[in-house]
Amino acid sequence: MGNIPQALIGALDGAEYVTVLTGAGISSESGVPTFRGKDGIWRKHNPMQLATPEAFERDPKLVWEWYLYRRGLMQGVHPNPAHLAIVELERRYSRFLLITQNVDDLHRKAGSLELVELHGNIFKVRCSMCERKLSEMPELEGLPPRCECGGNLRPDVVWFGEMLPHAALERAFEAAAQCDCMLVVGTSAVVQPAASLPLIAKREGAFVAELNYEPTPLSHLVDISLMGKAGELMPLLLRHLEAKGD
Ligand code: BV8
Ligand code: ZN
């Protein structure tokens, strides 16, 4: 079977506590455009113009149009073999945490249970005044949608310059520090504080492997950096683990 280094199979086979950090690359084979890739949505729109509280303050309608467009891209989009391989991986460990930067809800749809969404979820909405959370968009009488309190409803995602949800971040930092092995899948590793999680894991003695389509700032810092498509590498990794386990 293909090219998965023995060191990675051995590290996963011997691990008690495994964490996985994912980024937009794991959803690209589902047809979801990444952020910074050649097909990246941020090619057409400048994220600093749209994914910031200032942008929402200045033009909430424009920001909502962008998020409705992105929600639209998600219609008919399903988890791919990489998402499903992580669900299989989770079942092999009593201690496991999936930490995602993605807001596309595909890990939850795939069946991942121990899951932390560092940057929120594009299908959830919250009030920018009273912070009330809604699980979906209210009937649209126009943009931005309004809360009963009169405040503007906003996508329940983390914008640049905003704090990450405290509980999610705490849980992610703790898991990174305690795990024996961390897989970093499909992220350009440029957004903080998510990109520091693999460094924390490495510093605390975990075996850290990156699976990505192209090199990143992490590639020379991790134990193993595998270049390739997550939808191919992750299922291959699981087949190796199953073969070893039998
Ligand atoms: C905060 C939600 C501060 C919204 C997102 C200067 C230096 C360092 C840091 C900063 C700085 N200036 C500002 C900062 C902080 C800033 C930051 O990190 N900026 C970066 C860009 C420099 N961070 C923040 O603002 C964070 N908040 O720091 O608060 C603070 C402190 C105290 C008090 C108050 C405030 C908030 C960050 C969260 C921003 N929100 N998204 C939305 O989605 O609309 S970030 C956005 O980028 C997504 O969440 C995405 O997940 C994330 C990371 O991108 P990736 O997932 O990595 O996606 P990308 O396209 O980049 O890469 C995909 C990779 O996959 C590629 O490498 C590609 O090769 C690979 N790939 C593609 N296909 C495949 C594949 N791999 C495998 N298989 C494939 N098939
Ligand atoms: Zn409100």
Overview of the molecule:
Helices cover 36% and strands 18% of the residues. It contains ten helices and nine strands. The chain has helices at residues 6-14, 41-44, 47-50, 53-58, 60-73, 81-91, 106-110, 166-178, 197-203, 230-245; strands spanning 17-22, 95-100, 115-117, 120-127, 133-134, 153-157, 181-185, 207-212, 224-227. The strands form two sheets. A six-stranded parallel beta sheet has the order 3-2-1-7-8-9, with helices on both faces. The longest helix has 16 residues, at 230-245. The chain is elongated. The chain binds ligand BV8 and zinc ion.
Compact summary:
The longest helix has 16 residues, at 230-245.
Key phrases:
Rossmann fold; 9 strands; binds zinc ion; binds ligand BV8; 36% helix; three-stranded antiparallel sheet; alpha/beta; 2 domains; 246 residues; SIR2/SIRT2 'Small Domain'
Low-confidence stretches: none
| Principal-axis shape | elongated
- The named CATH superfamily of the largest domain: TPP-binding domain
Based on CA atoms alone, the radius of gyration comes out at 18 Å
Task: Give the CATH topology of the largest domain.
Answer: Rossmann fold
Q: Approximately what portion of the residues adopt beta-strand conformation?
A: 15-25%
Bound small molecules, deduplicated: ligand BV8, zinc ion
Task: Please state how the strands of the largest beta sheet are arranged side by side.
Answer: 3-2-1-7-8-9
Report how far the terminal alpha carbons are from each other.
16 Å
Q: How many runs of DSSP E, i.e. beta strands? A: 9
